[in-house]
């Protein structure tokens, strides 16, 4: 990579987002670790700096709040430079029988998982257009490919993110900006373990790993590796794509 580029990773304080932030740091990006959980964001930024990477935490930012997103992106821009890579990773999960999904639950899911990426992309695309180069990676979910019972609101939000990816890729392609989505499946993170603990997985993580073609759960680093490729220079001809990373659980 010839010039220094800044990457913004939402939900960078935990799980998949943490792995992506550390990987992009290792690959030479100045990394903005944005998270609702300020302490978690700070921990990851410190971890990255301890490894010699350039990183800053932007904590206490809710991606579903456009004002907070715009203010945080301005701060990133001023401290780390124009944002040329955006990874929309922050997300909520949820399990509810369809008739138990209230308007509030539905609205919050859509606000975080779909409006959040919309606000973040609108905030950074002007930097990318000016540079004539940009990369957006949206972390959706394999459940948007397969469907998932008791997760209608979650799956609808992630399927919306797949649609956003495809449409935006067509619009931004002429300006040197690629937009892709990685739908992870069954990745061992605090989110997955919390679902296991609450008995919401229909079995343990180990049980599901045995049913997975590669016979293990995903690691956050598996998603980070795919993301690193998609934001690289050499991925310039890959856009509008759904790049599944799921151990063969969905094909
Ligand atoms: P995780 O460990 O729970 O990490 C998600 C991070 O995002 C947390 O630090 C969380 O902060 C933050 N966050 C949540 N809501 C936010 C908001 N409104 N604004 C800013 N930050 C927010 O989850 P993960 O498993 O790494 O998941 C990362 C992404 O992958 C999510 O979009 C998820 O839907 C997707 N995904 C994961 C799997 C899997 O198997 N793990 C499968 C399919 C898709 P708090 O802790 O404060 O909430």
Quickly list its features.
251 residues; alpha/beta; Rossmann fold; six-stranded parallel beta sheet; 6 strands; 48% helix; binds NADP nicotinamide-adenine-dinucleotide phosphate
Structure description:
With 251 residues, this protein is an alpha/beta fold. The protein has a single domain, classed as NAD(P)-binding Rossmann-like Domain (Rossmann fold). It has nine helices and six strands. The chain has helices spanning 15-26, 38-50, 66-80, 103-131, 143-146, 152-172, 190-197, 205-211, 220-230, and strands at 6-10, 30-35, 55-59, 83-88, 134-139, 177-182. Strands 3-2-1-4-5-6 form a six-stranded parallel β-sheet, sandwiched between helices. Helix 1 (15-26) runs parallel beside helix 2 (38-50), helix 3 runs parallel beside helix 4 (103-131) and helix 4 runs parallel beside helix 6. The radius of gyration is 17 Å and the shape is globular. NADP nicotinamide-adenine-dinucleotide phosphate binds at residues 10-11, 13-17, 35-37, 40, 61-64, 89-93, 112, 116, 139, 141-142, 184-187, 189-192.
């Amino acid at each position: 990579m010839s010039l220094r580029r800044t990457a913004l990773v939402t939900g960078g304080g935990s799980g998949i987002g943490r792995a992506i932030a550390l990987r992009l740091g290792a690959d030479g990006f100045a990394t903005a670790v944005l998270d609702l959980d300020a302490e978690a964001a700070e921990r990851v930024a410190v971890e990255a700096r301890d490894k010699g990477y350039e990183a800053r935490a932007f904590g206490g930012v809710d991606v579903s709040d456009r004002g907070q997103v715009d203010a945080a992106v301005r701060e990133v821009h001023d401290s780390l430079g124009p944002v040329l890579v955006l990874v929309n990773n922050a997300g909520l999960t949820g399990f509810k029988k369809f008739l138990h999904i209230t308007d509030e639950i539905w609205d919050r899911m859509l606000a975080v998982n779909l409006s959040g990426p919309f606000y973040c992309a609108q905030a950074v695309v002007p930097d990318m257009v000016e540079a004539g180069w940009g990369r957006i990676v949206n972390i959706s979910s394999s459940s948007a490919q397969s469907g998932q019972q008791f997760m209608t609101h979650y799956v609808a939000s992630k399927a919306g993110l797949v649609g956003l990816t495809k449409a935006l890729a067509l619009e931004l392609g002429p300006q040197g900006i690629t937009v892709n989505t990685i739908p992870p499946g069954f990745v061992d993170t605090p989110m997955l373990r919390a679902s296991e603990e609450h008995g919401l997985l229909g079995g343990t993580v180990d049980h599901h790993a045995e049913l997975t073609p590669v016979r293990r759960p995903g690691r956050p680093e598996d998603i980070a590796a795919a993301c690193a490729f998609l934001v690289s220079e050499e991925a310039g001809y890959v856009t509008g794509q759904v790049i599944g990373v799921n151990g063969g659980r969905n094909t």
